[in-house]
């Protein structure tokens, strides 16, 4: 009988003393819709199944600014390492209990990082025109229009109004944000890429505007109704460790 999924913790289960990558995620908005696990199971990499909370899993649309991407312990790159990004993601758990996310698409506005992500890591990066604008005191607008490889023009416009800081996130808010790695096919093998960062500073947010087709462009049905969760965070610095097998064993 497989072990149960690892507990969901607001702090990373392990530190990453020697990072493979460093970066900061800034001005994040998290939109989530509930979906039936059976509807997304076929989109996950081998060795993983949908991670669920009370029998439900979720599709996430996360828009933000990537800041100062860097390799190893080198300083982050000031121009090429700064760009808006929007990803469509699912929630996964491996047979040995490691929870993570699976990215179906990652739209970014810098061509060089897109090429590195696609060619070097086989990740679904796509080149898009994107902007993140503070359009009022507590209001943020994200716009995107895909350039390559397609479908050309996929994107949209999302505007949120930030609310008060969350003191203690709910079980669902922890489930959607406290994810300490990604499952994927890296270097031609199913692997797990761990990450670590400080505890999320989270705000509940009001969705003012949402016109997007990135979810359907990623191969999913159009979201039904309003998101069940809308969150905002000013951001965190993050570190990624060495790729590991889904069970958590580091690669040679």
Brief overview:
Strands 1-3-4-5-6-7-8-11-12 form a nine-stranded mixed beta barrel.
Structural features:
nine-stranded mixed beta barrel; 4 helices; mainly beta; 10% helix; 252 residues; 48% strand
Structural account:
InterPro entries: ADC_dom_sf, DUF2071. This is DUF2071 domain-containing protein. Pfam families: DUF2071 (PF09844). It comes from Streptomyces griseoflavus Tu4000. This protein has 252 residues and is mainly beta. It has a single domain (21-240), classed as Acetoacetate decarboxylase-like, CATH 2.40.400. It has four helices and twelve strands; from the N terminus they run βαββββαβββαβββαβ. It has helices at residues 37-40, 111-121, 171-177, 214-217; strands at 21-35, 48-50, 57-71, 83-94, 99-108, 125-134, 139-148, 155-165, 181-186, 189-196, 203-212, 229-240. A nine-stranded mixed β-barrel has the order 1-3-4-5-6-7-8-11-12. The radius of gyration is 17 Å and the shape is globular. The two termini are 28 Å apart. The model is unreliable at 247-252 (pLDDT under 50).
